[in-house]
Amino acid sequence: MGALQKVSGFIMSPAMKMLLILLAVLFPLAAGNEYQIYVMALAFVWAIAVYGMNIVTGLCGQLNLAHGAFFAIGAYTLAILTVDNGWPFWPAFVAAGAMGALLGFLVGVVSLRLKEHHFAIFTLCVGFIIYLLMDKWESLTHGTLGIINIPAPHGFGLVDFTETTPFYYLALVFLVLSVFFASRISHSLLGRTFLAIRISDDLAASLGINLMRNKVLAFVLSTTYAAVAGALYAGMVRFIGPAEADVAHTFDMITYLLVGGIGTLMGPLVGTLVITWLTQSLQSLEEYRMIVFGPLLVLLVIFSPRGVVGSFTAWRARRRAAAREQQARQTASEKVPPQAGASSIKKGAGNHA
Q: What does the UniProt keyword field contain (predicted)?
């Protein structure tokens, strides 16, 4: 259980969870302008995809370099169904998640027979193939022109998701659901199974774990997260192109995960928010912002390899261990009988006399 907590991150109290949700709900009221609300909503969408990567990479230990391509699959599925086929948004949204799961299963069954860097290289090739299909298959994907006029999510009553603030709350709801399911997975028997596979395939096999089945399951869960995030992204920006499948997006998500804390519960969210807002704050530097951002990222990886959340978890664990040790010493000293101490003093005085 201790090892699982190291992977899943610290367990927040219900009060802390409610406080974070309350702060997120109140953010639009404190934001300086609508653009800040838009950036935060966009960060929420990317965080959902990063949670998917955390399942297959952080929990199961399989580095999927096609994760950004599955994000694009979700976006393109929704765009093609709504723009070219006239589907309503929400049925197309469900279909996008199902497409991510189906293609994730097909790719996972083939690619997960490989291990370590061979698996990573294979998925990198899969991601590039998906990018080429989106770029060259003009009759389906519109090629380099992309797909425009993607409809926003259908609202209800007075709620209009074409506006920034309502969409922000929609993205927040999906993010909360994503974190909830990720928490349930990481603290369940399935999460322990993924952890055993991450530690060692041989160890997991010796425990009777079906390696292929569980690896494919982790892969499908991660690609479903990515496709759902991609569908939300398409409904938010209203335009997509082949660049959405670029491998650069995959490496961006890996960066978010490393900064926040790979394998931790809150790491994907923290890393995404930190990098997103740091990038926004450095926009005034234009092309020189990477000169500042790059060294900061390198320093973080060197001095905090566990990420922000992972380092905080380790610090809190050391602090609790020190407190327990001090309490144990204090308890041991209190258990010494005072009579025994007094008799020893009297005995010593008699010998002296």
A: Cell membrane, Membrane, Transmembrane, Transmembrane helix
